[in-house]
UniProtKB/TrEMBL annotation:
Protein name: DUF4136 domain-containing protein
UniProt-listed PROSITE patterns: PROKAR_LIPOPROTEIN
Source species: Thiolapillus brandeum
Length: 215
C-alpha cells in the first residue's frame, strides 16, 4: 500500500510528465547534416532572423538568444550590429557584422508559412452513469446507462513552420539545415523558445556547437 509520501511523489512525477508533454508542440519536421565536417564546434553563433519588420526580427532574436543561453550556448543577435533589414542588403555588410560579432557560426532563421488545416471529426457514442445514488441494484443495472450521441464536426489546426540554416563562418558552407513545425501554438514567446530548444539540441547532437550540458 502506498504511503502518503510516496503518493505525493508519484503525483508530482505524473504532473511533471503531463507538463512536459503539453509543452512539446514544436518538432523538427526534417533535417540535414553535412558529411565529413572538418570544423571545431562553434563557441559563438550569430543569429540572423529574416524579417522586414525590425520589431518582429528583434523580438524573435531576443527570445531565441535567451533560450539558447539557458541551454548554455552563446548566440549573438544580429540586430545589435544591424538594427534594420537594409543593413544586411550587401554581402560586405554581412561579413563586417560577422567579424564584429566574433562568431564562428551563423544561424539563419526564416518563417516559411502559417497554415491552417481543417478536418472532419467523426461522431461518437459516449456512455455515462445516469441513475441517482438512491437507485436500487436492478434499477441501476438496467437503467443507469444511456447512450449520448455526439455529432461530428469540422475542426481546424494551425501550423507554424520555420526554416533554419546553419553555416560555418570560416568556410561559409552550410553544415546543417532543419525545418520546424509547431502545431496550434499557444504563445509567440513559447513557440520561439521551443524552436530554439529544438534547434540547439540538433546542433549540439551534430557536435556543431559548444557549451551546455544535459539541460
Amino acid at each position: 500500500m502506498l504511503t502518503s509520501a510516496r503518493m505525493v511523489k508519484l503525483f508530482l512525477v505524473v504532473i511533471l510528465a503531463l507538463l512536459l508533454v503539453g509543452c512539446s508542440s514544436t518538432k523538427i519536421s526534417d533535417s540535414w547534416e553535412a558529411s565529413n565536417i572538418d570544423e571545431p564546434p562553434a563557441k559563438k553563433i550569430l543569429l540572423i532572423a529574416i524579417a522586414k519588420d525590425p520589431v518582429t526580427r528583434r523580438f524573435f532574436e531576443e527570445h531565441f538568444v535567451a533560450e539558447a543561453s539557458e541551454k548554455g550556448v552563446e548566440v549573438i543577435p544580429s540586430f545589435k550590429f544591424a538594427p534594420h533589414a537594409t543593413d544586411l542588403d550587401e554581402k560586405e555588410e554581412i561579413i563586417k557584422i560577422l567579424k564584429e560579432s566574433g562568431a564562428d557560426g551563423v544561424l539563419i532563421a526564416q518563417l516559411r508559412s502559417i497554415d491552417e488545416k481543417s478536418g472532419y471529426v467523426p461522431n461518437r457514442l459516449s456512455w455515462f452513469p445516469d441513475a441517482g445514488s438512491s437507485a436500487l441494484f436492478y434499477d441501476y443495472y438496467f437503467e443507469s446507462y444511456r447512450a449520448i450521441h455526439r455529432p461530428g464536426y469540422i475542426g481546424s489546426d494551425s501550423y507554424f513552420r520555420m526554416q533554419l540554416r546553419y553555416f560555418s563562418a570560416r568556410s561559409e558552407k552550410m553544415l546543417w539545415a532543419g525545418n520546424t513545425v509547431t502545431k496550434n501554438p499557444r504563445s509567440v514567446v513559447g513557440t520561439i523558445e521551443q524552436i530554439a530548444d529544438k534547434t540547439i539540441g540538433e546542433l549540439r547532437s551534430a557536435d556543431l556547437v559548444q557549451g551546455g550540458g544535459l539541460f
